Every structure is written in C-alpha cells, then in structure tokens.
User: Which sequence fits this backbone?
C-alpha cells in the first residue's frame, strides 16, 4: 500500500474529514507584512540552496527558533548539511500547506524533512484535536507527494505549559493518533516529550523559558535525539554533541562598586552555577563573607539577593541583577536605605 493510501486509512473519519475540509487542512496565507516578508525570505533561501539542501525543517516559531536560541546547535549539526529552515512564527498547519505549495519546496531535493507543526492550531477552540491531526497529516502528505524521495522525520507536537493543563492534554491526544501516520520507512516518528518534562510532569524553565519556546539547551536535546536516525537517512557521519563547559558566570571574580565616598571598592566574589541556580558569596572584608540567596540565571542574565547586617542590629538587602559577557560582569544593585538606591557594579574574572 502506498503512503498516500496509508495516510487516508489512518481512520475512516480522517479520510472523510479531509474530503470535507476545514481550516486546518485548507491552505491559506497570512496577510500581515512580517509573515509575507518571511515567506519571501524563505523562498529566496530555497532558491539559493536548491538541490544542495540535504535536510529541511518545516514548522512554526519553534522551528524558526533554530535561528535564535538554537543557532549554535544548528551551526554544529546542520550548517554543513546545507539545511534550510522553513519555520515561521505563529504558523498553523493551513499556513504551512500554503507555503509548501507556493515556493517553499521549489527546486529542493532533500533527503530528509523534519516536521513539527500544530501547536498554534491548539489554542482555545480554534481547532479540535481531530482537525489538528488531519492538518498535520495533510502537511506530511503534501511533502510526500511533492518530494517522493524525501523521508519525513515527523515529531510529536511538543508539550507546552508549566504544569498539566487541558491544552497539553489536547496535544497528547493528537500525538497518540499522529504516530500512526509513520510507517517507519518513509515517515519516521519521534516523540521528545520525555526529554523535555521533569519527573513530576512540569516543564523546566531552563528548557522552555516561557513554557513553549525552546532554550539553547532544549535545541541541543532535540538535535541529539534525532541525530542517529537523521545521519542514517542522510548517509553521512553522525555529529557528536558538544561537551558542555561551565557556565561563563561560574568562577572566581573581583567585583567593584562605588563606596559611600564615591570611590570604587573592590573585593573577591565566588560564583557557582548548577543548571539555572546560582550560589556564591561576596567578601566583605577579612574573613567575613556575604552569601548569595535565591540566585537564578537564564542565558547570560542573572539575579540574586545579598543580605548585609548593620552595626545597629538592622540589615540591608540588595537586589542584584546583571549580565555576563565573557570575562566581564555588569549589573545593578538596588536597596532601600533612607529611600530606594540603585548602584552600578562590575566584576572581572580572575
């Protein structure tokens, strides 16, 4: 049985619904200028890549994010494969269907197409789970019809939302049926949910800071998860994951802040980073140290508090924020001492 027949026979209801049509399977462009400009850019990329492109990524903002938070991983895994990113933020299955028919595949002959689409269709009551299943299936069907020599790497729609919620449940139901589209030969299935979720079912912020879009770490997880299968499809050497080094915030520093008289004062600062948590201490003088509390880091941005006891028995709490760039830190320290005060501070790595 050919793949088109297989797709249509996922269920009798699916076949009937595809014939009846609804928004998720009805190809449609978006009218906003940003989308139209991105579509033009993608068609230009496709024309430039042509038959050299070995792999294409098809999807929405999560796919487009390979150009942002995922750019380092993309450079390692996909740049040498002349990969083409066909992601547009906010897209739904109907928009992808329109794009595939209007230039996004012209002249391409990739060995693999990585597909992850459908999360934007799941908002509210816009589309039912059944309709989203049909929409994603239609995308796969379009790729197989237009690129019959291309194998589709079909990804389950990623989980979203910090905790269990109805929308995440809707996506899980879609994925249960969507995996039936894969035949293990021309369409290969991957579900990465277990790699993104914590043991208690929550989505960690270090993987999805807004509980939808991916962090650099999450893009690395995605690439590593599909690499064995992808390298096999492409017939090239497997890319190995980069060995993660310490976070640039980690280490021994000399920090500087202006004292009460306006002159700079410097002292040692020791910082430790574990995942998204930061601990450490500032030297106050002699053997006295001030501990960092509630420290967190996302990317190169951080925040923490430091409490300092005063001779009169009271204390002052400093809310410290900033960013690290190589061997330099720049930040602000806010406190309340006879009114709110904000002081800039810097640090240099030893």
Assistant:
């Amino acid at each position: 049985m050919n793949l088109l027949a297989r797709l249509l026979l996922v269920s009798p209801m699916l076949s009937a619904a595809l014939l009846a049509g609804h928004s998720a399977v009805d190809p449609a462009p978006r009218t906003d200028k940003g989308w139209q400009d991105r579509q033009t850019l993608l068609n230009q990329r496709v024309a430039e890549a042509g038959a050299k492109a070995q792999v294409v990524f098809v999807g929405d903002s999560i796919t487009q994010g390979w150009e942002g938070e995922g750019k380092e991983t993309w450079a390692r895994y996909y740049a040498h494969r002349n990969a083409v990113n066909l992601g547009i933020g906010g897209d739904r299955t109907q928009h992808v269907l329109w794009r595939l028919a209007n230039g996004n595949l012209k002249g391409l002959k990739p060995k693999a197409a990585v597909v992850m689409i459908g999360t934007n269709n799941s908002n509210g009551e816009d589309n039912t789970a059944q309709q989203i299943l049909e929409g994603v299936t239609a995308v796969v069907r379009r790729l197989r019809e237009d690129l019959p020599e291309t194998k589709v790497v079909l990804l389950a729609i990623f989980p979203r939302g910090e905790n269990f919620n109805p929308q995440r449940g809707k996506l899980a139901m879609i994925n249960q049926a969507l995996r039936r589209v894969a035949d293990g030969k021309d369409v290969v299935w991957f579900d990465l949910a277990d790699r993104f979720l914590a043991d208690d079912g929550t989505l960690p912020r270090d993987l999805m800071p807004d509980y939808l879009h991916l962090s650099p770490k999450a893009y690395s997880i995605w690439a590593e998860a599909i690499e064995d299968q992808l390298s096999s499809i492409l017939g090239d050497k497997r890319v190995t994951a980069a060995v993660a080094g310490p976070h640039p915030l980690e280490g021994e520093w000399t920090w500087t802040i202006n004292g009460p008289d306006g002159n700079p004062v410097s002292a040692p600062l020791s910082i430790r980073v574990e995942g998204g948590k930061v601990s450490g201490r500032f030297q106050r003088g002699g053997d006295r140290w001030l501990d960092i509390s509630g420290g967190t880091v996302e990317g190169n941005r951080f925040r923490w508090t430091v409490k300092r006891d005063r001779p009169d028995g009271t204390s002052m709490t400093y809310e410290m924020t900033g960013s690290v760039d190589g061997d330099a830190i720049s930040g602000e320290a806010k406190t309340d001492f006879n009114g709110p005060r904000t002081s800039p501070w810097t640090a240099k790595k030893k």
Summary: The two ends are 66 Å apart (CA to CA).
